[in-house]
Protein backbone atom coordinates (compact mmCIF):
# COMPACT_ATOMS: atom_id res chain seq x y z
CA UNK A 1 0.00 0.00 0.00
CA UNK A 2 1.38 3.42 -0.90
CA UNK A 3 2.47 5.60 1.99
CA UNK A 4 0.76 8.75 3.15
CA UNK A 5 2.80 10.92 0.76
CA UNK A 6 0.24 10.99 -2.06
CA UNK A 7 -0.04 14.36 -3.72
CA UNK A 8 -2.69 16.62 -2.29
CA UNK A 9 -5.55 17.94 -4.36
CA UNK A 10 -5.97 21.70 -4.44
CA UNK A 11 -7.24 23.25 -1.25
CA UNK A 12 -8.16 20.32 1.00
CA UNK A 13 -9.80 21.42 4.27
CA UNK A 14 -7.08 22.83 6.56
CA UNK A 15 -6.01 20.58 9.43
CA UNK A 16 -5.63 21.74 13.01
CA UNK A 17 -5.41 20.20 16.47
CA UNK A 18 -8.90 21.59 17.14
CA UNK A 19 -10.34 19.90 14.02
CA UNK A 20 -8.67 16.54 14.69
CA UNK A 21 -9.87 16.58 18.29
CA UNK A 22 -13.41 17.18 16.97
CA UNK A 23 -13.01 14.07 14.77
CA UNK A 24 -11.94 12.01 17.81
CA UNK A 25 -14.84 13.42 19.86
CA UNK A 26 -17.28 12.31 17.10
CA UNK A 27 -18.44 15.88 16.47
CA UNK A 28 -18.22 15.61 12.64
CA UNK A 29 -19.95 13.30 10.18
CA UNK A 30 -18.21 10.21 8.89
CA UNK A 31 -18.44 11.69 5.37
CA UNK A 32 -16.60 14.83 6.47
CA UNK A 33 -13.85 12.70 8.02
CA UNK A 34 -13.44 10.87 4.70
CA UNK A 35 -13.41 14.19 2.84
CA UNK A 36 -10.39 15.21 4.93
CA UNK A 37 -8.50 12.19 3.59
CA UNK A 38 -9.69 11.70 0.01
CA UNK A 39 -8.07 14.79 -1.55
CA UNK A 40 -4.84 14.12 0.36
CA UNK A 41 -4.78 10.61 -1.14
CA UNK A 42 -5.27 11.95 -4.66
CA UNK A 43 -9.03 11.51 -5.02
CA UNK A 44 -11.08 14.25 -6.68
CA UNK A 45 -14.78 14.85 -7.12
CA UNK A 46 -16.19 13.99 -10.48
CA UNK A 47 -19.13 15.82 -12.02
CA UNK A 48 -21.69 13.81 -10.03
CA UNK A 49 -20.21 14.47 -6.58
CA UNK A 50 -18.44 11.11 -6.30
CA UNK A 51 -14.77 11.12 -5.30
CA UNK A 52 -12.71 9.09 -7.76
CA UNK A 53 -9.07 8.08 -7.61
CA UNK A 54 -7.17 10.43 -9.87
CA UNK A 55 -3.68 10.23 -11.32
CA UNK A 56 -2.21 11.54 -8.03
CA UNK A 57 -3.62 8.55 -6.13
CA UNK A 58 -1.20 5.68 -5.77
CA UNK A 59 -1.72 2.70 -8.07
CA UNK A 60 -2.75 0.46 -5.18
CA UNK A 61 -5.43 2.95 -4.09
CA UNK A 62 -6.67 3.39 -7.67
CA UNK A 63 -6.92 -0.37 -8.18
CA UNK A 64 -8.31 -1.32 -4.76
CA UNK A 65 -10.63 1.64 -4.27
CA UNK A 66 -11.36 3.41 -7.58
CA UNK A 67 -14.13 5.44 -5.95
CA UNK A 68 -14.32 7.07 -2.51
CA UNK A 69 -13.19 4.50 0.06
CA UNK A 70 -15.46 4.59 3.09
CA UNK A 71 -12.82 4.69 5.83
CA UNK A 72 -15.33 4.75 8.68
CA UNK A 73 -18.15 2.57 7.37
CA UNK A 74 -16.09 -0.23 5.82
CA UNK A 75 -13.29 -2.29 7.30
CA UNK A 76 -11.11 -2.94 4.18
CA UNK A 77 -10.45 0.75 3.46
CA UNK A 78 -9.73 1.39 7.15
CA UNK A 79 -7.24 -1.50 7.22
CA UNK A 80 -5.58 -0.19 4.04
CA UNK A 81 -5.33 3.28 5.60
CA UNK A 82 -3.73 1.83 8.75
CA UNK A 83 -1.22 -0.13 6.69
CA UNK A 84 -0.29 2.95 4.68
CA UNK A 85 0.96 4.80 7.79
CA UNK A 86 4.75 4.50 7.97
CA UNK A 87 5.98 2.72 11.11
CA UNK A 88 7.75 5.82 12.42
CA UNK A 89 4.42 7.69 12.45
CA UNK A 90 2.20 5.05 14.09
CA UNK A 91 2.30 6.81 17.49
CA UNK A 92 1.57 10.38 16.36
CA UNK A 93 -1.95 10.27 17.78
CA UNK A 94 -0.50 9.76 21.23
CA UNK A 95 2.59 11.94 20.75
CA UNK A 96 0.96 14.99 19.16
CA UNK A 97 -2.58 14.93 20.53
CA UNK A 98 -1.98 13.09 23.81
CA UNK A 99 -4.71 10.64 22.77
CA UNK A 100 -4.59 7.61 25.04
CA UNK A 101 -7.37 5.78 23.23
CA UNK A 102 -11.00 5.20 23.99
CA UNK A 103 -12.20 3.56 27.17
CA UNK A 104 -13.52 0.01 26.98
CA UNK A 105 -17.17 1.13 26.89
CA UNK A 106 -16.35 3.52 24.02
CA UNK A 107 -14.69 0.99 21.70
CA UNK A 108 -16.85 0.92 18.60
CA UNK A 109 -15.59 0.37 15.04
CA UNK A 110 -16.67 3.90 14.07
CA UNK A 111 -14.56 5.44 16.81
CA UNK A 112 -11.47 3.29 16.33
CA UNK A 113 -11.61 4.01 12.59
CA UNK A 114 -11.80 7.73 13.37
CA UNK A 115 -8.62 7.36 15.43
CA UNK A 116 -7.00 5.65 12.43
CA UNK A 117 -8.12 8.52 10.18
CA UNK A 118 -6.65 11.12 12.53
CA UNK A 119 -3.38 9.21 12.83
CA UNK A 120 -3.17 8.99 9.03
CA UNK A 121 -3.77 12.74 8.73
CA UNK A 122 -1.03 13.43 11.29
CA UNK A 123 1.32 11.10 9.40
CA UNK A 124 0.45 12.88 6.15
CA UNK A 125 1.50 16.19 7.70
CA UNK A 126 4.68 14.64 9.16
CA UNK A 127 5.68 13.08 5.82
CA UNK A 128 5.33 16.48 4.17
CA UNK A 129 7.17 18.29 6.97
CA UNK A 130 4.11 20.41 7.73
CA UNK A 131 3.32 21.48 11.30
CA UNK A 132 -0.08 20.90 12.90
CA UNK A 133 -1.73 24.24 13.65
CA UNK A 134 -3.44 24.55 17.03
CA UNK A 135 -6.51 26.23 15.56
CA UNK A 136 -8.02 26.65 12.13
CA UNK A 137 -11.29 26.64 10.28
CA UNK A 138 -13.98 24.35 11.65
CA UNK A 139 -17.19 23.24 9.99
CA UNK A 140 -20.30 23.41 12.16
CA UNK A 141 -19.78 20.86 14.92
CA UNK A 142 -22.43 18.25 15.61
CA UNK A 143 -23.44 16.86 18.96
CA UNK A 144 -21.81 13.49 19.59
CA UNK A 145 -24.31 10.86 18.42
CA UNK A 146 -26.59 9.39 21.06
CA UNK A 147 -25.89 5.97 19.52
CA UNK A 148 -22.17 5.79 18.70
CA UNK A 149 -22.72 2.57 16.74
CA UNK A 150 -25.19 4.23 14.34
CA UNK A 151 -23.38 7.55 14.19
CA UNK A 152 -24.81 10.81 12.89
CA UNK A 153 -27.89 11.12 10.65
CA UNK A 154 -26.70 10.32 7.13
CA UNK A 155 -23.66 8.28 8.22
CA UNK A 156 -23.39 4.98 6.36
CA UNK A 157 -23.96 1.82 8.42
CA UNK A 158 -20.72 0.32 9.68
CA UNK A 159 -19.79 -3.01 8.11
Could you say which overall geometry the principal axes of the C-alpha atoms support? globular
The residue fraction in helices comes out at: 25-40%
H/I helix tally: 6
N to C succession of SSEs:
HHEEHHHH
The proportion of strand residues reads under 5%
Cα-atom Rg, whole angstroms? 15 Å
Largest sheet: 2 strands, antiparallel
Average pLDDT taken over every residue: 91
Q: What is the number of strand segments?
A: 2
Strand order of the largest sheet: 1-2
**Unreliable runs, pLDDT <50, ≥5 residues?**
5-9
Global structural class: mainly alpha
Structural key phrases:
6 helices; mainly alpha; two-stranded antiparallel sheet; 2 strands; 159 residues
Question: If you had to describe this structure to a student in words, what would you say it looks like?
Answer:
The protein has 159 residues and is mainly alpha-helical. Helices cover 38% and strands 4% of the residues. It is built from six helices and two strands. Strands 1-2 form a two-stranded antiparallel sheet. The model is unreliable at 5-9 (pLDDT under 50).
Blueprint of the fold:
Elements: H1 17-24, H2 30-41, E1 43-45, E2 51-53, H3 59-64, H4 75-83, H5 92-97, H6 109-128
Antiparallel strand pairs: 1-2
Amino acid sequence: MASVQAAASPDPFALSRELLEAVLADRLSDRFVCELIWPRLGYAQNGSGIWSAGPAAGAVWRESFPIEPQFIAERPPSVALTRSIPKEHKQLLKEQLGFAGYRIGELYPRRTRRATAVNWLLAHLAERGEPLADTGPLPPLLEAPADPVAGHPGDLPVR
